[in-house]
Every structure is written in C-alpha cells, then in structure tokens.
Write a structure and sequence with these properties.
Elements: H1 3-26, H2 34-59, H3 64-93, H4 97-133
Helix pairs in contact: 1-2, 1-3, 2-3, 2-4, 3-4
C-alpha cells in the first residue's frame, strides 16, 4: 500500500472516530425528546459507517478484510472518545469512586466491544458489495 493511501485511510478513520464520539456526546446533551435524539445519533452514525465502507471499497479499492479493519478502527476510536467523554462527565457530576472505576474500565472495554461487531458487519457488507458490483 502506498504511503498516500495509508495516510488516507488513517486520516479517514481518525476523522470518523472523532465524528462518532462527537455525535454521541452532542446528541446526548438535550434533556427533551431523549429517545428522538438517541435515534438521530444512531442514524447519523449509521450513515457515516455506511459511507466509510463504501469509501474503503469503492474509492480506495481495499479488500473486504482491509476495509473492515479500517472501519472497525474508526468505530473503536469513536467508542474510546465516548468513554473519555463519560469519564470527564463523571468528574463534573460528582460520581462515586466505584462509578469512576467502572468508567475507567470503559476506556478499554468500549472500543473492543464496538470494534468486533463493526468489523464483522463491515466485512459482510464488503463481501456483498463485491459480489453485487463485480470484483471491486
């Protein structure tokens, strides 16, 4: 893989990871219509996820496995960002020490817990996309 393509997928993964975290944090702020805001966050994140898969397969022409790994990295970064945000919120909200300790564990658990299903779904989607469009 050329250096420019490597930088392209890394930059994309980092930007989408930041985007996932920001969507999760900012859409959690409103106190009214909480379910609607959560649904909106899921929809915005799903659009970014689908666009990332398409970008990896169609624009960068990465293999299904590589595309899925890159997408999973972005999702893991987003989950890590959410865990950081949750930890910061717990400090300002006066949470108990036990709650803070659990949130510290989230810094490692949330990225792994989200990256694995993100990888599997992206891999399946990439394979279907490859078969539907021919060898991409």
């Amino acid at each position: 893989m050329s250096k420019s393509l490597r930088q392209s997928w890394v930059r994309t993964a980092v930007l989408l990871g930041i985007g996932y975290a920001l969507v999760g944090i900012l859409f959690a702020v409103p106190n009214t219509h909480v379910k609607a805001w959560r649904l909106a966050a899921w929809v915005v994140s799903a659009i970014g996820y689908a666009a990332h898969i398409a970008y990896e397969r169609l624009r960068l022409q990465n293999s299904p496995g590589s595309a899925a790994r890159h997408v999973a990295v972005a999702v893991a970064l987003g989950a890590f960002g959410l865990a950081v945000g949750a930890n910061m919120h717990s400090l300002s909200a006066g949470s108990t020490n036990q709650h803070r300790q659990l949130l510290l564990l989230a810094l490692g658990i949330w990225p792994v817990m989200t990256a694995l299903p993100a990888f599997l779904v992206a891999l399946g989607t990439s394979v279907v996309l490859t078969r539907a469009l021919g060898r991409v």
